[in-house]
Design a protein that fits this description.
Blueprint: E1 2-6, H1 11-22, E2 26-31, E3 44-48, H2 58-61, E4 66-69, H3 82-96, E5 101-105, H4 119-128, H5 131-145, E6 150-156, E7 158-160, E8 169-171, E9 182-184, H6 185-196, E10 204-209
Parallel strand pairs: 1-2, 1-4, 2-3, 4-5, 5-6, 6-10, 7-9
Antiparallel strand pairs: 8-10
Helix pairs in contact: 1-6, 3-5
Length: 210
């Protein structure tokens, strides 16, 4: 498939590119700093773009079979709208170019998965450290859900840099109200690529943890 990857310089985005290429997909990675992509492949196209500037990436959406977003940022403790504004631009560009399939990472602990990141996140991390970040993720999800795209929102538990195991739990009831469940970025990327080839979780949210 021809896949557009947003957020390719992040650790999850890196896994999406690496695993997608290994599966034979043709990957176009939209990144603000192309030099951060350190490897090359005949099926990899690295393009400079910013999701907050639609004209910088919209031409790259045309002709893609799907868009995979691992969009994130590090502005956790200040008010931010990068995720929601960026996702709104992605959704609009996909709609204008008639690209339907969209898979996007957010997190457990948002909207109807509230509290499912465990007590530590529920009582401390989200309200005191990640409040604005999670608020923006919640807005991001609503933009996707309100679209006419064939979307899937993937909600991982606490992300780790562990190896790809391909053994994990996924579904609407994944997560825990007391314990913080984890999942490697490599396994999240594996799952996103897996559901590209199925009709599983179309227009649905899905949690994923070990």
């Amino acid at each position: 498939m021809k896949l557009l990857v947003i957020g390719g310089t992040g650790k999850t985005g890196h896994e999406l590119i690496k695993q997608g290429l290994a599966q034979g997909h043709v990957i176009t990675a939209v990144v603000r700093k192309p030099k951060k992509i350190k490897y090359s492949n005949p099926n990899l196209y690295v393009e400079k773009g910013d999701v907050l500037v639609p004209k910088s990436f919209e031409r790259l959406v045309k002709g893609q079979d799907a868009v995979l977003s691992a969009l994130g940022h590090k502005q956790f403790i200040i008010r931010t709208t990068i995720l929601s504004r960026g996702t709104k631009n992605i959704v609009s560009a996909m709609s204008r170019n008639q690209v339907k399939r969209f898979i996007c990472i957010t997190s457990l602990g948002i909207n109807d998965s509230k509290f499912k990141l465990g007590l530590y996140y529920t009582l401390f991390t989200i309200p005191f450290i990640l409040y604005f970040y999670f608020l923006d993720k919640s807005k991001q999800e609503k933009i996707i859900m309100d679209s006419a795209l064939e979307w899937t929102i993937v909600r991982p538990g606490q992300l780790t840099n562990g190896k790809k195991r391909t053994i994990y739990k996924h579904g609407s009831n994944v997560g825990h109200y007391i314990l913080t469940k984890m999942i490697s970025r490599a396994d999240v990327a594996h799952f996103m690529l897996y559901i590209l080839n199925t009709n599983s979780y179309l227009k649905s949210t899905v949690g994923i943890t070990n």
